[in-house]
Amino acid sequence: MSFWVGDWTLITSRERLIELARRLRDDRDTAFDFCSDVTAVDWLARAERFDVVYCLYSTRHRHRVRLKVRAADGVSVPSVTALWPAANWLEREVFDLFGVRFDGHPDLRRILMPDEWQGHPQRKDYPLEGPGELLMENPLDWLKLRNEIE
Amino acid sequence: MALFDTDELVLNMGPQHPSTHGVLRVVLRLDGERVVGSDVVIGYLHRGIEKLCEHRDYLQIVLLTDRMDYVSAATSNLGYCETVEKLMQIEVPPRARYIRTILAELQRIASHNLWLGTHAMDIGAMTVFLYNFRERELVLDLFEDYCGARLTYNAVRIGGLPLDIPAGWDQKVRAYCDLFESKIPEYEELLTHNRIWKERTQKIGVISAEDAIALGLSGPLLRGSGVPRDVRKDEPYAAYADFDFDVPIGTLGDTYDRYLVRVEEFRQSLRIIRQAIDGLPEGPILGKVPRLIKPPAGETYHAIESPKGEIGFFIASDGKSITPYRFRVRPPSFCNLQALPRLIKGHLVADVVALIGSIDIVVGEVDR
Fold it and tell me: How many angstroms away from the CA of B16 is the closest CA of chain A?
């Protein structure tokens, strides 16, 4: 648990996420019934490189909290869509842009990028600029090729 | 054997459809003319703004936030700048906070004008569209006087504002408020008691308060369902804490209630603008901002009330670089659009058009 510039943040483990989230939602004193945002941060240098961040809000008490879990590449995080249906598209977006998988998500497809896209653009090791339209089918192949030449 | 097939029909609406307000595709599964299932496909306008922002410095990003919700650019500017100010604990002078509030409220009126015009035209009322664009033009003129731009304003800076208001601008705003107040009854005369309008909007796309909260709806959609939630009131930012205004709410949560809520917001916005112009303090317009904007390591989330709903910015800084490590927008249109399959289920194809309009999406913000 941490407090900085007026925001509370709770850090939890993947195993305890659902249990904690359910308590935050159902407890009368917290009552976080509104899931504002689900997003992720890619800390490339760390072993568990992804932070999945849930921004919660309570329409009754008008307070906010952020919930955070860590995940390594290829490790999936339990989905909170059963608790907050609002998380459905938000988790799809995290999956699309970061490649974090969510267990128990009803419809885990890409949402912003084309269905056949390779790679996950918001990762820190994904290039900002690609090679142009011709090779854009798979930017990762291009990246590998470029690294070999260098 | 039956004379006619009774299969379900799959109909593709969009991506290029006049009523989808941009490039939105809705795949409808129809039983006759009734929608039994649907899938919303977005991403046609994805420009990777979040990725791009992680490669630009903090001042350049203000410009990019213009390009998300391009019909209410000033609101996105404000939300982003306030987030960085929160991250760096910068104090904004009162004059800047007041002018920011005026800009945000003018922007809300312009955005609601555009919404009402296009929404009414989707349903078939052409006159309302022309009236609304006539008044929206006046707001754009005010913005042009203030910062020279009519659509992408770049009107807010971290720590304050780039420009003070030009001489006589406050008088122009006051004259505009008086003029616009006399125009609101014209829209209401055309729509509020219009039988066709009521038949097309009442009891269409009803959503209860609990469902609206669970689905993460915000802005007029949530208020239309009777939840008195407004970030301006609940977590006051800019100068909203100093002003007196009401938060209109609906009762049933249908398309008609959402229309009433937005029309009442016209009046409340005018109230706020008048109070802000009357109480406009003297003083500097830019706070103490370091020359190099480099926030300490840490992260924060800050939300403000855009015309569409809660627009939130999540910024993580590693404390070492002049670009954000992670830049994330919580786009209100994106979260509100999520409710579309739920809203249109069981309604007719013609109502799908009314409901897309009722959500008030800007695809530039949905896809980013």
Answer: 17
CB-based contact A2:A11 (threshold 8 Å): yes
Higher pLDDT, A35 or A127: A35
Is residue A64 within 8 angstroms of chain B, CB to CB?
A: yes
Chain A to chain B, count of Cβ pairs less than 8 Å apart?
86
Q: When comparing pLDDT for A3 and B197, which is higher?
A: B197
Q: What are phi and psi of B105, to 5 degrees?
A: -75, -40
* pLDDT (0 to 100) of residue B101: 92
Backbone angles phi, psi at B289, to 5 degrees: -120, 130
Residues of chain B below pLDDT 50: none
Asked if the Cβ–Cβ distance from A89 to B335 is below 8 Å, we say yes
The full DSSP string for B343-360 is: HHTTSBHHHHHHHHHHHT
Closest residue to A66, CB basis, from B50, B235, B301? B301
* CA–CA gap between residue A9 and residue A61 (Å, rounded): 17
ipTM above threshold 0.95: no
Hey, what amino acid is at B343? L
Q: Which residue(s) pair with B326 in the sheet?
A: B316
Residue numbers in A near B228 (CB within 8 A): none
Q: Which residues of B are less than 8 Å from A90 in CB distance?
A: 216, 335
d(CA B109, CA B271): 12
